[in-house]
């Protein structure tokens, strides 16, 4: 029994990130003996790199349309016959094209993914017939979700350009199929691509990738100017959804474990559903109002804050006041037990993210693209090193900056930043 | 032949140099003599507009149901024209209608020149036909997994 355990632990440590350079492409694979495999092609083509507002979103929606190898319909029908699922998702830094499939079908699905990168046609009629409705439905889903909308506005206020670029297209865009084609051409180069596999053998994946993506043009990785944090206030009129307020602070530089712990400390979410957590915010929030802590780490900046949602502006104001108070108090220093609790919470959420396929791909992917994949232990080690003084220092520096404040909903009655004590 | 495109032997004639050398002058003469260029039309305007009317005189009534423009595939092809092509096409149709009202061809400087008479619609129709054929292929495919 013990021997078996030791061998799994070794296996995990070994297989967490076996990264190889295959024909100039970074290929990483993790095999945990799952019954299914997944391959993700991660491209540095997130919204921060986009050439025109909404192009990154449009490129995401263009995924799996016709290529030189097969038509859009052929891709749909054939992958259905194999029983696989294809998906594309866009982040501020990366565009991820994912195929999940049964073991053994990797040849077909790697081909589907790579043919989009190498030979997509970006035809005008497909843009008009299939892609524009998807862009519009993305924009409609944004308009219907005040929480996401508040975070979009918060990014724009906090970082302005770069990370401030929206993940969604503007409501009236002038994007053409040609714009998307030239953006894709500049993004799909060797330095920008990482191929990540889970439930697939590293050497098999590397071989397939080399064959199908080996001819991708080599050029330097995409770069943008380093993010800087500005902060500010914005109020947006919205109807139908809950009253929403985002209170946040930003920091530049690589994300630190201290800020993750701060986000975990202020999070009022209880460990058991329908119970009240022991967080100081939880007790002072009116019934029916939700407060979520937001921790969004990027390669060179972090946004930490609280998202308050409630039925009426008065409730939101009360909850927001409590949230700001706790945030300020945390910046002044917290007790040793509270720190221990916060670190445990933050470490657990980081570790459990690595368990899931999506979480692993996003953590591993950015590390692989940055060229420094770490081990499981190394990615969790910073949490053990958090000291009370480092925590206080990081929190104080964060809160000293200009706050990012966004109100979405009934702007006539929602509180202003200074009314909450910011 | 039940399709949006009229019967054409061009694909058989073009590869043969001798045949196309013989046929081409006749074809050019025929296109000019058929008179649509005098009304400012292009050949692809006709195929989707006037030709079905001519057809109905010679071909039996069941053919009338699939008049060329009133087919979903050709409608989709028309949607795929660029805004400029759509505008120009509508302009040519209107101008020709007006000429028809006046019972006279257009002034000579407005006639379509042979080099302007390009197949702007046909590639889109072919594309749509291919897509439909592929859809039918997938709808009726028999899957064998080895």
TrEMBL record, chain A:
Gene3D superfamilies for this protein: Metalloenzyme, LuxS/M16 peptidase-like (3.30.830.10)
Keyword field: Electron transport, Membrane, Mitochondrion, Mitochondrion inner membrane, Respiratory chain, Transit peptide, Transport
Bilayer topology annotation: Peripheral membrane protein
InterPro entries cross-referenced by the UniProt entry: Metalloenz_LuxS/M16 (IPR011249), MPP/UQCRC_Complex (IPR050361), Pept_M16_N (IPR011765)
Top-level lineage group: Eukaryota
Keyword tRNA-binding: no
Domain called Peptidase M16 N-terminal: residue spans: 27-170
Signal sequence range: none
Family under the similarity heading: Belongs to the peptidase M16 family. UQCRC2/QCR2 subfamily.
Protein name as annotated: Cytochrome b-c1 complex subunit 2, mitochondrial
Organism field: Tricholomella constricta
Lineage: Eukaryota, Fungi, Dikarya, Basidiomycota, Agaricomycotina
From TrEMBL, chain B:
Coiled coil: none
Keyword Mitochondrion found: yes
GO-annotated biological processes: mitochondrial electron transport, ubiquinol to cytochrome c
Keywords, ordered alphabetically: Electron transport, Membrane, Mitochondrion, Mitochondrion inner membrane, Respiratory chain, Transport
Broad class of where this protein is predominantly found: mitochondrion
InterPro entries named in the record: QCR7 (IPR003197), QCR7_sf (IPR036544)
Membrane topology label: Peripheral membrane protein
One term under GO cellular component: mitochondrial inner membrane
Compartments it resides in: Mitochondrion inner membrane
Superkingdom, taxonomy of origin: Eukaryota
PANTHER family: CYTOCHROME B-C1 COMPLEX SUBUNIT 7, UBIQUINOL-CYTOCHROME C REDUCTASE COMPLEX 14 KD PROTEIN
Family that this chain belongs to: Belongs to the UQCRB/QCR7 family.
Role played: Component of the ubiquinol-cytochrome c oxidoreductase, a multisubunit transmembrane complex that is part of the mitochondrial electron transport chain which drives oxidative phosphorylation.
Designated name of the protein: Cytochrome b-c1 complex subunit 7
Species the sequence originates in: Tricholomella constricta
């Amino acid at each position: 029994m013990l021997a078996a355990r030791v061998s799994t632990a070794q296996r995990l440590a070994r297989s967490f990130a076996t990264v190889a350079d295959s024909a100039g492409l970074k290929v990483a694979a993790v095999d945990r003996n799952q019954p299914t495999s997944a391959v993700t092609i991660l491209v540095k083509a997130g919204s921060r790199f986009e050439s025109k507002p909404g192009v990154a979103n449009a490129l995401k929606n263009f995924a799996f349309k016709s290529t030189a190898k097969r038509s859009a319909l052929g891709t749909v029908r054939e992958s259905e016959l194999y029983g696989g699922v294809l998906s594309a998702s866009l982040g501020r830094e990366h565009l991820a094209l994912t195929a999940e499939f049964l073991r053994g079908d990797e040849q077909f699905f790697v081909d589907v993914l790579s043919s989009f990168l190498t030979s997509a046609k970006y035809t005008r009629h497909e843009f008009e017939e299939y892609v524009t409705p998807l862009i519009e439905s993305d924009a409609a889903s944004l308009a219907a979700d005040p929480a996401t909308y508040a975070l979009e506005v918060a990014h724009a206020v906090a970082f302005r350009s770069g990370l401030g670029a929206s993940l969604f297209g503007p409501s009236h865009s002038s994007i053409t199929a040609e714009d998307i084609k030239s953006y894709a051409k500049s993004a799909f180069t060797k330095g920008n691509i990482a191929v990540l596999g889970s439930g697939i053998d590293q050497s098999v994946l590397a071989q397939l990738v080399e064959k199908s993506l080996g001819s991708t043009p080599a050029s330097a990785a995409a770069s943008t100017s380093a993010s800087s944090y500005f902060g500010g206030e914005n109020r947006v009129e919205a109807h139908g959804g809950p009253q929403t307020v985002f209170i946040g602070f930003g920091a530049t530089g690589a994300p630190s474990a201290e800020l993750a712990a701060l986000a975990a400390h202020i999070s009022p979410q209880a460990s058991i559903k329908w119970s009240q957590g022991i967080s100081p915010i939880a007790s002072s929030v009116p019934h029916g109002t939700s407060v979520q802590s937001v921790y969004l780490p990027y390669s060179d900046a972090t946004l930490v804050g609280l998202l308050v949602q409630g039925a009426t502006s008065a409730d939101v104001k009360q909850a927001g006041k409590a949230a700001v108070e706790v945030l300020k108090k945390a910046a002044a220093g917290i007790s040793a037990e509270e720190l221990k609790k916060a670190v445990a919470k933050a470490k657990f959420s980081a570790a459990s993210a690595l368990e899931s396929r999506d979480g692993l791909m996003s953590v591993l992917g950015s590390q692989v693209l940055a060229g420094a994949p770490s081990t499981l232990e190394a990615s969790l080690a910073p949490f053990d090193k958090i000291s009370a003084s480092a925590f206080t220092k990081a929190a104080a520096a964060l809160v000293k900056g200009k706050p990012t404040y966004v109100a979405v909903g009934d702007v006539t009655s929602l509180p202003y930043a200074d009314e909450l004590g910011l | 032949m039940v399709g949006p495109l009229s019967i054409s032997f061009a694909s058989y004639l073009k590869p043969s140099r001798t045949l196309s050398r013989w046929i081409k002058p006749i074809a050019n003469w025929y296109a000019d003599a058929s008179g649509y260029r005098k009304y400012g039309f292009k050949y692809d305007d006709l195929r989707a507009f006037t030709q079905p009317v001519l057809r109905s005189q010679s071909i039996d009534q069941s053919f009338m149901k699939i008049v060329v423009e009133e087919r979903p595939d050709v409608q989709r092809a028309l949607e795929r024209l660029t805004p400029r092509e759509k505008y120009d096409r509508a302009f040519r149709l209107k101008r020709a209608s007006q000429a028809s009202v006046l019972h006279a061809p257009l002034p000579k400087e407005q006639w379509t020149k042979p080099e302007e008479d390009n197949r702007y619609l046909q590639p889109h129709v072919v594309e749509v036909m291919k897509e439909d054929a592929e859809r039918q292929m997938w709808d009726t495919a028999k899957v064998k997994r080895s």
